[in-house]
Design brief:
This protein has a domain of 100 residues: Alpha-D-Glucose-1,6-Bisphosphate, Chain A, domain 4 (2-Layer Sandwich). Strand 2 and strand 3 form a beta hairpin. Helix 3 runs antiparallel to helix 4. The protein is built from six helices and five strands. By secondary structure, the protein is an alpha+beta fold. The protein starts with a helix and ends with a helix. It comes from Parasynechococcus marenigrum (strain WH8102). Keywords: Membrane, Transmembrane, Transmembrane helix. This is Cofactor assembly of complex C subunit B.
Length: 184
């Protein structure tokens, strides 16, 4: 087997491995827990958080009065542009791999080019795995009459960042800042 084919085969296999890992990462669960503090009264903060979440499409899903927990549920849709991009990348990668296989094993005729069908499969896999129901949980940890309250939020990382950015001023929410400083 000529060196050019070996390197092309290696690069094509690496492309396929990268696509698989990208598909896994794109639909990975990124649930995070963060504690936020506010000097405002508990009722005002919890009411403000609940109203804001309902405006964003979250629905109440019960809670636990003994543990002081409120639960919300929301549906997350897959990104259609990302599904199309993944389909195109997988189709191109499948075609490249098919061409390399065709050159390495001419007896296979044109059958390896059917690997182009991996394109729609990749978009479909991403769409199924990324579209899911997410949960958000608010737990009142401490209620101080003069010092405010501390609430533990457990949700998708992006939703927690949105809460921190959009409600920090109106509800005077503050956290340790780890969500906004993390590169991932």
């Amino acid at each position: 087997m000529p060196a050019g084919f070996q390197s092309t085969l290696l690069l094509t296999v690496l492309l396929a491995i990268g696509l698989v890992f990208f598909l896994r990462a794109a639909s990975k669960d990124r649930t995070t827990v963060v504690d936020v503090h506010s000097p405002r009264p508990a009722l005002e903060v919890l009411s403000g958080l609940s109203d804001w979440l309902e405006q964003r499409g979250w629905s109440r899903d019960g809670g636990d009065a003994d543990r002081q927990v409120l639960r919300f549920r929301g549906s997350v849709a897959a990104s259609q542009p990302l599904a199309v991009l993944l389909s195109v990348l997988a189709a191109i990668g499948g075609t490249c791999f098919g061409l390399v296989l065709r050159q390495l094993a001419p007896q296979l005729s044109w059958w390896p080019l059917l690997l182009i069908l991996l394109g729609p499969a990749a978009g479909s896999v991403y769409s199924r795995r990324a579209a899911r129901t997410e949960a958000l949980e608010l737990q009142l940890l401490q209620e101080h009459n003069e010092a405010g309250i501390t609430v533990r939020l457990r949700a998708h990382r992006d939703e927690l960042i949105a809460i921190e950015l959009e409600l920090a001023d109106s509800l005077q929410l503050s956290s340790d800042g780890s969500l906004l400083s993390s590169p991932i």
